[in-house]
Specification:
This protein is an alpha/beta fold. Helix content is about 25%, strand content about 20%. A hairpin with a 4-residue loop joins strand 10 and strand 11. The structure holds zinc ion (ZN).
């Protein structure tokens, strides 16, 4: 019985990932297998906004899944200018944007400056200072656009070599962790050519115990209220939803938290520009990795619009993003409703 999907959606939202804008000529990824359209990415962002603004049901918000501007901006001293260009473009539409931080945010800016910047959207959507965060410099928060639905923005670089002072305790702890697994001189070079160990590179990171404990408590409250939770993270956390080189360092610990709660329905990530998807049948959770704008040809697109219903979310993809349906796992109360 899928009656809920026949009426209009409860709300919709937009998703877009890895814009990586820079005012430089096109280039290639590290392995020179994919072209990167550094200037063109701004136009593709504009296409997405135009589509969202023109849609019959206006999105309640947009999720920007991280890597808004490219690390090359830092090399040329253009970080602020590039960020301004992208935020000006985003400002052309009144849509509320929730920003996730990726490695490229941290190549361009320190963690402390990001916290004081327009890329800190933790107070949007009813967030309250102090109450909704796991720690003073961890960028994670949750918001509820519509009763019954919660979105949790995670900080996948809370444990990382990026964005922190090299003398800080957090940096030294992250360095100790990565060097247990990666003995290369260049820590951006993966320790192995295949398998899950590839993830221990400097362009990835992980979630601290403080953040995992905080997530656990957010999900406990959501379980209690029978909410549907979508988790958003720059780094994918399910090995079958991405190439393993893009996984979060402690993806397994995050999956364990998710598995211990009934409220999570979807995890959305970026970082792997090829995208990916896996439906974990054990938990019913859908793991989506969104294709990146930066490696999308200028005559195509890479954004999605998600319509949310009582029993599912429907992703309408544009350009190289495929359409998908994320059915929610059944709950005991759903069965009861059906029986009445
Ligand atoms: Zn990334």
């Amino acid at each position: 019985m899928d009656g809920c999907a026949r009426g209009g959606p409860l709300f919709t939202f937009g998703v877009i990932a890895d814009i990586q804008y820079a005012d430089i000529d096109d280039g290639y990824n590290y392995s020179r297998t994919r072209r990167r359209y550094y200037r063109g990415s701004l136009q593709l962002l504009g296409n997405a906004q135009e589509s969202w603004s023109g849609s019959a049901v206006k999105p309640a918000f947009v999720l920007q899944l991280g890597d808004l501007i490219d690390g090359f901006n830092k090399c040329s001293g253009a970080s602020d200018r590039a960020l301004d260009a992208v935020l000006t473009q985003l400002g052309c539409s009144p849509l509320e944007v929730h920003h996730v931080w990726g490695n490229h945010e941290l190549y361009n800016f320190s963690r402390s400056s990001l916290l004081g910047s327009r890329l800190n959207t933790s107070l949007l959507g009813g967030g309250s200072p102090g109450a909704a965060r796991p720690g003073s410099d961890i960028y994670a928060y949750h918001f509820s656009p519509v009763p019954g639905f919660t979105f949790v923005v995670l900080d996948a670089y809370d444990v990382s070599l990026l964005g922190r002072e090299e003398s800080s305790e957090e940096y030294l702890r992250a360095r100790a962790l990565i060097t247990q697994h990666n003995h290369n001189q260049d820590l951006n070079c993966p320790p192995e050519c295949e398998g899950l160990q590839q993830r221990f590179t400097m362009f990835n990171g992980g979630f601290s115990k403080d953040q995992l404990d905080w997530l656990d408590s957010v999900l406990s409250a959501a379980d209690e209220k029978q909410q549907r939770v979508t988790i958003v993270s720059h780094l994918p956390v399910h090995p079958y939803s991405t190439c393993p080189i893009c996984l979060a360092w402690n993806f397994d610990e995050l999956l364990a938290v998710i598995r211990s709660h009934s409220s999570v329905v979807c995890v959305m990530a970026g970082h792997d520009h090829d995208g990916g998807y896996y439906h974990d049948e054990d938990t019913g959770v859908h793991h989506l990795t969104l294709e990146g704008v930066i490696e999308t040809q200028p005559d195509s697109n890479a954004f999605g619009t998600v319509s949310v219903y009582e029993d599912r979310m429907v992703l309408k993809g544009s350009g190289r993003i495929p359409d998908r349906v994320f059915l929610f796992p059944r709950r005991h109360s759903d069965t009861d409703d059906r029986a009445v």
